[in-house]
Design a protein that fits this description.
CATH architecture of the largest domain: 3-Layer(aba) Sandwich
Radius of gyration: 22 Å
GO molecular function: glycosyltransferase activity
Keywords: Glycosyltransferase, Transferase
Largest sheet: 7 strands, parallel
Oligomer: single chain
Helix content: 40-55%
CATH topology of the largest domain: Rossmann fold
CATH class of the largest domain: Alpha Beta
CATH superfamily of the largest domain: Glycogen Phosphorylase B
GO biological process, one term: carbohydrate derivative biosynthetic process
Structural class: alpha/beta
Pfam family, one: Glycos_transf_1
Number of domains: 2
InterPro entries: Glyco_trans_1, Glyco_trans_4-like_N, Glycosyltransferase_grp1
Distance between the termini: 45 Å
Shape: elongated
Strand order of the largest sheet: 3-2-1-4-5-6-7
Length: 421
């Protein structure tokens, strides 16, 4: 089978879990004998990039990228035009198009219609639910409205829709407003492993004078709640605890200022962007992983920390409760509550044996649920469903040149460009 995968986010420096997911899935599909070609924005991996070229080099997938200097400044629309143009240069013979999220749907839909192929769309994120991380200006609200309409336009035309969590699947049904045929849930995964399972006991069981490391991984945006982790740390002054933050983003200056104002700047380490070759080591060195998101559909950070056998404290919101069985495979805390977060950190540190048990259960859960090979097998089954369903329909889709251009534009045009929403 030949698959054309289109994603606006992809290594060597993925901006989100979407890029991590797309790359790992492409590699796992290739191991199953599927030919995968990826269309993306950004630049090709460079040799010697702190392990990133190795990560990409294991994919076995062809990567066709737009110039990196262009992708940083082009709008979503321009990126989609570029991705569609890149696809147009490829020889025919693909069996289907797999689109990752709404920001690639214009290109994916155009290519699928042009070549008369089934479209599989993976929904990674609900931007309406997570909209609080947007800047409060008119342009961002217009962009959110545009993306929601664009996504609905793509969902309604997809042969198979994959959601990475049950919460997102419910959102798909609400967005489309009717029953969605061939809607399935296939979660995110991780390639990480608990390399310390046979090593000596965790440092949680060591002397209380040893510094305990809390780890938060993710983009530094309001949605991810890093400010809550910093505020919780400020309530733990009597404990030898520090916070390591792996990731970068527009909120970093404000977060550094918050840590300074709360008197804990010397106990917070901002690492910036961290290559995936180093990330697994960071998880192994930490004792507790924090995921205090304000919204997250199915954060890969939870999968990764659990796979490495760490205690995860996550917010009871979005898809996180699907990943964490409270007090069995991790801890769920109320969203927007740094006091509760600090309390659960104390609870974990008070009983090292209990903490190790939680981590071991989390590791077992992750190995069973988040294997990319299993996820690829489930995805391949849906590819077969898409091909069979598309063939059974019997009516070739009209090529792009025959589409009603006015109707296509109206489908994604915002209804209002001003005022509050």
């Amino acid at each position: 089978m030949r698959v054309l995968m289109i994603s606006s986010d992809y290594p060597p420096r993925p901006r989100s879990g979407i890029g991590v997911h797309a790359a790992a899935l492409a590699g796992a599909l290739r191991r199953l004998g599927v030919s995968v070609t990826v269309i993306t924005t950004g630049s090709k991996p460079e040799s010697g990039r702190d392990g990133d070229d190795h990560y990409c080099g294991t994919l076995g997938a062809e990567i066709l990228s737009l110039p990196g200097e262009a992708s940083a400044t082009l709008s979503m629309l321009h990126r989609n035009v570029g991705m569609a143009a890149a696809a147009g240069k490829l020889p025919a013979g693909f069996d289907l198009v797999h689109c990752h999220d709404s920001r690639a749907v214009l290109a994916a839909r155009a290519v699928a219609d042009l070549w008369d192929l089934p479209l599989v769309m993976t929904k990674h994120y609900d931007r309406s639910a997570g909209g609080t991380h947007l800047d409060e200006d008119t342009s961002d609200r217009v962009m959110l409205d545009y993306e929601q309409r664009l996504e609905r336009w793509g969902l309604e035309r997809s042969t198979v829709v994959i959601a990475v969590s049950q919460s997102l699947a419910r959102g798909v049904r609400t967005s489309v407003g009717r029953a969605v045929e061939n809607l399935v849930v296939i979660p995110n995964g991780t390639e990480f492993h608990d390399t310390a399972r046979d090593a000596p006991a965790s440092s949680l069981g060591g002397p209380r004078t040893r510094q305990v490391e809390l780890l938060q991984v993710g983009r530094l945006v309001h949605q991810k709640g890093c400010d809550l982790s910093i505020a919780a740390l400020s309530l733990l002054r009597d404990l030898p605890v520090r916070l390591v933050v792996a990731g970068d983003g527009p909120a970093r200056p404000q977060l550094e200022g918050l840590a300074r104002s709360l008197g804990v700047r010397d106990r917070v380490t901002f690492l910036g962007y961290v290559a995936r070759s180093r990330l697994e080591t960071l998880y192994a060195d930490a004792q507790i992983a924090l995921v205090p998101s304000r919204f997250d559909p199915f954060p890969i950070a939870v999968c990764e920390a659990q796979a490495v056998g760490k205690v995860v404290i996550g917010a009871r919101i979005g898809g996180i409760p699907e990943q964490i069985d409270h007090l069995e495979t991790g801890i769920l805390t109320p969203p927007e509550d740094h006091i509760a977060l600090a309390g659960w950190i104390r609870w974990v540190l008070a009983d090292p044996d209990r903490a190790r048990t939680l981590g071991e259960r989390a590791g077992s859960h992750a190995r069973a649920a988040y294997s990319w090979d299993r996820i690829a097998e489930a995805t391949l089954r849906q590819y077969q469903v898409a091909r069979e369903t598309f063939a059974a329909a019997g009516q070739p889709r009209r090529p792009v040149a025959d589409l009603d251009a006015v109707a296509a534009v109206d489908a994604v045009r915002p209804t209002d460009t001003g005022g509050d929403r």
